[in-house]
Design brief:
The complex is a heterodimer of chains A (161) and B (657).
Chain A (H helix, E strand, L loop, with lengths): L1 H7 L18 E6 L3 H10 L8 E6 L7 H10 L3 E6 L10 H19 L6 E5 L5 H18 L13
Parallel strand pairs in A: 1-2, 1-3, 3-4
Helix pairs in contact in A: 2-5
Chain B lengths: L3 E6 L11 H10 L3 E7 L5 H13 L4 E6 L2 H14 L7 E5 L1 H5 L6 H20 L7 E4 L4 E4 L3 H12 L4 E4 L14 E2 L4 E2 H14 L3 E4 L2 E9 L2 E8 L14 H5 L3 E3 L8 E3 L1 E2 L11 E2 L5 H5 L4 H5 L12 E7 L1 E4 L3 E3 L16 E3 H8 L20 E8 L15 H15 L4 E6 L9 H12 L2 E4 L2 E7 L2 E8 L4 E7 L1 E6 L1 E3 L3 H8 L26 E3 L9 H18 L4 E4 L4 E3 L9 H5 L5 E7 L7 E7 L9 H5 L5 E3 L4 H10 L1
Parallel strand pairs in B: 1-2, 1-3, 3-4, 6-7, 6-18, 7-10, 18-29, 20-27, 21-22, 21-27, 22-23
Antiparallel strand pairs in B: 5-30, 8-9, 11-12, 12-17, 13-14, 15-16, 19-28, 24-25, 25-26, 31-34, 32-33
Helix pairs in contact in B: 1-5, 2-3, 5-18, 6-7, 6-15, 11-12, 12-13
Classes of the chains: A alpha/beta (161), B alpha/beta (657).
């Protein structure tokens, strides 16, 4: 059964597609203002180094992140997405990150069903004090996406509109 | 057509060493909407800001991008520069090329430069969708509500009222005073608690700006900062306070005896009672749970002896409403129940008491007239063992935190014991002596030297009865020996825990509390008296264990915060709030459910232009909204947008990466 259902999924990932030598992944990071963005600032002030592939967007709370943003990014510019918020229980807005957590679980399942590798879109909780952790998370996401290769097959320009 | 100005900062060498700034400027100039781009050594300096101001006027710019440090650092600075040039400050976007690029990619100049260029492009794209926003003004009701009439509530109320701001002080019990009214003398100066507290209590009662509502509880709080509406339930006292003179004849004649809470149950009070002689207001209330007349319809002695006819058995609870602008929560503490310490025989042996019971015994107005006695036989104890950290700092049985005040009050108890029973000796089992505070270490030394109190560093493993005595077996860690003390009385310094009603109160007020039940401050260091909800402040042990000086300081800090809030006629608020487009709203009310601040309500509007039929749509109270954006993401109809972080702004950013 499982093998059968797997066959039906048309994977977007094309492992046979070899990345051009000058290819560098682009990762979109959406960070909440109060914990993860502050944490990423701390990474800067403590000069912890990480790969320069991530482009960071600031939002007030991880609950502001619409799954649409993730899909839009994968459609247009990004090879991977990282979303980070306050640790569960520490939300600046009391309960926002709980909504975010549930929404991301569903989004992730949806993206898997469509055929994305689960490492394309990752979620993490980084507090304002965890500068070093932020660098680690970015490194991990970048490494994962490098292994997966470019995502341009799914990009909008390859569809006949 | 947008005209964007881009200003790239060197930040001295901070950015310029690792990012090729001129290249970033050249890249920015290639963006269609960018009409002006320039770099400068320090953008945040005066000449740097002047460059922005000049360019706004010269090049008729419609939005500004500053590529420099984190917006958390200098967003406010540059916003001000914009408004100085007559531009709406919210047309500014910051590209964080220092914390997010130059500082974290110091070994990869090309990567860092590329990234900086991308970050500028994203910021430009976002800024094009920026809208003019204006700070929100919210009117203020200048009246404060103080919940709790202990020393914290008293101090906060007095300080606020002295600033000529009306205060409503709500106290649950029949009298204000709280825990401090139960204390005998206070460390480290040994001044009598009653002597310093009761004048303040009287001040509260007589202050023209304080409305004291005793024997009542807050049951509802609606609204938002500056505009709260509180419902207060006044419990039926069955005594008409207006006519009662407080003569006390009713209490004398009342035949019902009930354990006295004020004296920790050591003696009895009547069913109609004033908690203690210095109570404010000094009027009795009838305890409905124990009054024979109210339970069985017989007795009525108090009504017979009352010359003023103040007893009213038909009185019922009354709910009153007050419009207020700010709340100070000061609900105080409780003592942890030491029953889990089975090896101590808590509950089995009568001569094991907690520190507040001891405090009542040595108090001059206490049930034993100021002399400690053994509860079992009423004899005066000669050897008293004090055990510290009962429940505190004990992850397994009690609570992980340190209760902070026990080291000091146990030293005080040793001194008081010595004052009351001269030939007595105190043995104190402790883990550490934490005496940080003005005059505190000296006070502990005084206890050791003056009274000869024996401090034993170690835990007690067992207490058992031997004849009349209690044998306390423990460890003297410094000698590495087991010790056994033959004690007449054992006093446990049990942990300080928050009031049991805290979680319910926190839910009612819409603020958060920690796993122990202490109410949470907005920031542990920099905002210690504010809560995450604007206009609600914390004072005293409701936030964490504290001694009296700290509690008073925090209460005064609350008062300063309240006065600051009420300084103007309106409160300014960030305009980053959500708004509903009623045309698109389908009325599903998902946003109402997710809003953590209950800022969203529904309203009925006509179905169409001039139509009689109505439909329901969401409506956001911008005074309450804190701008998290939960409602925006949950909205299926895309009818809600969050100013400053609208969908077009974020999508523009994503597409521009």
């Amino acid at each position: 059964m499982e093998a059968e259902s797997k066959d039906k999924i048309v994977s977007i990932e094309k492992p046979e597609l070899i990345a051009p030598p000058d290819w560098k992944p682009v990762i979109m990071g959406i960070l909440c203002n109060w914990c993860s963005y502050a944490g990423s600032d701390l990474t800067g002030t403590s000069r912890t180094q990480y790969p320069p592939n991530i482009r960071i967007i600031r939002v007030p709370c991880s609950s502001r992140v619409d799954p649409w943003f993730i899909i839009k990014a994968l459609q247009t510019t990004a090879d991977g997405v990282l979303i980070s918020g306050c640790h569960p229980g520490d939300c600046h807005y009391i309960s926002g990150n709980y909504y975010a957590r549930r929404r991301f679980l569903v989004t992730k399942e949806l993206l898997k069903m469509v055929g994305f590798h689960e490492h394309r879109v990752q979620f993490s909780w980084v507090s304002a004090a965890e500068g070093a952790k932020f660098a680690q998370v970015v490194k991990k996401v970048t490494d994962d996406v490098v292994k997966l290769g470019p995502l341009h097959l799914y990009k909008k320009e390859n569809f006949n509109r | 057509m947008a005209r964007v100005g881009v200003f790239v900062c060197f930040c001295g060498a901070n950015i310029a060493d690792f990012v090729d700034v001129p290249t970033v400027v050249e890249e920015a100039k290639k963006i269609r909407d960018v009409k002006f781009a320039i770099d400068y050594k320090y953008m945040c300096s005066d000449p740097g800001q002047q460059m922005i101001r000049d360019a706004i006027v010269q090049h008729r710019l419609t939005s500004i991008v500053v590529a420099a440090c984190s917006p958390r650092m200098h967003e406010k600075t540059f916003r001000k520069a914009l408004s100085d040039a007559g531009m709406n400050p919210y047309l500014l976007e910051c590209a964080n090329i220092r914390e997010h690029s130059s500082w974290v990619h110091q070994k990869d100049k090309k990567g860092a430069t590329d990234k900086a260029g991308d970050l500028v492009r994203m910021a430009v794209a976002k800024s094009i969708a920026n809208e003019q926003l204006h700070e929100i003004s919210v009117p203020v009701t200048k009246r404060a509500l103080v919940i709790g009439g202990g020393i914290a509530g008293i101090q906060a109320a007095l300080d606020i009222a002295d600033a000529r701001i009306p205060v409503t002080l709500v106290e649950r019990s029949p009298s204000i005073g709280g825990r401090m009214a139960q204390l005998d003398e206070t460390f480290p100066t040994l001044d009598c608690s009653q002597c310093i507290l009761t004048p303040k209590m009287v001040d509260v009662a007589s202050h023209p700006y304080i409305e004291l509502i005793p024997y009542s509880e807050v049951i509802e709080l609606d609204g938002y900062v500056g505009n709260y509406k509180a419902k207060i339930r006044k419990k039926a006292s069955y005594v008409n306070f207006k006519t009662c003179t407080g003569c006390g004849a009713c209490s004398q004649k009342c035949p019902v005896k009930v354990p006295n809470e004020y004296n920790m149950g050591i003696d009895k009070r009547k069913a109609i009672y004033t908690p203690f002689p210095q109570a404010v207001p000094n009027k009795p209330v009838i305890d409905a749970e124990h009054c024979t007349y109210l339970l069985k319809g017989k007795c009525g002695i108090c009504a017979k002896v009352c010359e003023k006819g103040s007893i009213d058995y038909k009185m019922v609870d009354e709910v009153i409403e007050r419009e207020i602008g700010a709340v100070v929560v000061a609900t105080g503490y409780d003592l942890w129940d030491a029953t889990p310490y089975e090896e101590y025989g808590v509950g089995r042996y009568k001569d094991i008491i907690n520190s507040l019971e001891f405090e009542r015994m040595v108090s001059a107005n206490g049930p034993t007239g100021g002399v400690p006695v053994r509860p079992s036989d009423g004899k005066v104890p000669k050897t008293v063992v004090f055990i510290k950290c009962v429940g505190s700092r004990d992850k397994a049985k009690g609570i992980e935190f340190c209760s902070k005040i026990c080291c000091m009050y146990t030293a005080k108890h040793a001194i008081l014991l010595h004052h009351k029973v001269h030939d007595s000796r105190a043995y104190i089992f402790y883990m550490d002596i934490r005496a940080a505070g003005k005059g505190y270490e000296e006070f502990v030394n005084r206890a050791q030297v003056e009274t000869g109190a024996v401090y034993l560093r170690g835990r007690v493993s067992k207490i058992y009865q031997k004849g009349e005595k209690l044998m306390v077996r423990g460890e003297d860690g410094q000698l590495g020996q087991e010790v056994e003390v033959e004690a007449d009385l054992v006093v446990l310094a049990t942990a300080v825990i928050p009031d049991k009603g805290n979680p319910a109160l926190a839910r009612l007020l819409g603020i958060s509390y920690d796993k122990y039940g202490y109410l949470s401050e907005a920031h542990p260091k920099l905002r210690p008296v504010e809560t995450a909800k604007a206009g609600i402040f914390l004072a005293g042990c409701t936030q964490a264990p504290k001694d009296i000086p700290e509690t008073v300081a925090q209460a005064s800090a609350c008062a300063a915060k309240v006065c600051g809030l009420f300084a103007g006629d309106t409160i300014k608020k960030d305009p980053m709030v959500s708004t509903v487009n009623k045309e698109f709203c389908s009325g599903c009310q998902n946003c109402v459910k997710v809003c953590p601040y209950q800022a969203i309500v529904t309203e009925d509007i006509p179905l169409g232009h001039g139509a009689k039929e109505m439909r329901t749509v969401a409506k956001i109270n911008e005074g309450v909204c804190q701008g998290c954006g939960s409602c925006v993401a949950i909205c299926r109809s895309m009818a809600i947008n969050l100013a400053g972080f609208t969908d077009p702004q974020i999508i523009n950013e994503i597409v521009a990466i």
